[in-house]
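Researcher: Here's a chain I'd like modeled. Treat it as a single chain, no partners, no ligands.
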Amino acid sequence: MTLRITDDPAADDLLSTNPLALLIGMLLDQQVAMETAFAGPLKIEQRVGSMDATTLAHEDPEVFAAAFSESPAVHRFPGSMAKRVQALCAAIEEDWGGDAAALWTRDDPDGATVLKRLKALPGFGEQKAKIFLALLGKQYGYDGAGWREAAGSYGDEGSFRSVADITSPESLTKVREYKRAAKAAAKAGD
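Model: Modeled as a single isolated chain. Structure tokens:
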């Protein structure tokens, strides 16, 4: 399984092989382009030298924030997002023994359980948790019972609503078109 989210083979390889990197990419996916968010974990790994929850959680906060701020920045809000990534890593260390994949593998959880676990993470609200669950189910090999239902419309087969549906430059374009239309519809309803 190889994800194709960022159009950068090295970044996509890290996302495909490191569950924490994928989780951090999802956390960073706000107020920046999806490709920028999901390329962030590779920048972090290159600058800090690790993509390990325990290591990142205990990195000096100022040093970690400085790594986020290096050009090109990991995120347009490097300071606040560095804090969020460290909080996420601390939760993974404390609650999941440092293993991000345990969120969807420990005790063979169903989709509703994984959704609940994701929503308990810092920085993961309902929508972000559902999108990540859909990404796990559609592209990361997670097949827990009821995952599509738990992911809501993001779990719909053949949809192009979110990062869960990006498998190529063409599908990225379709997701962008969907988001643009949804934003326009929401604005028209104001």
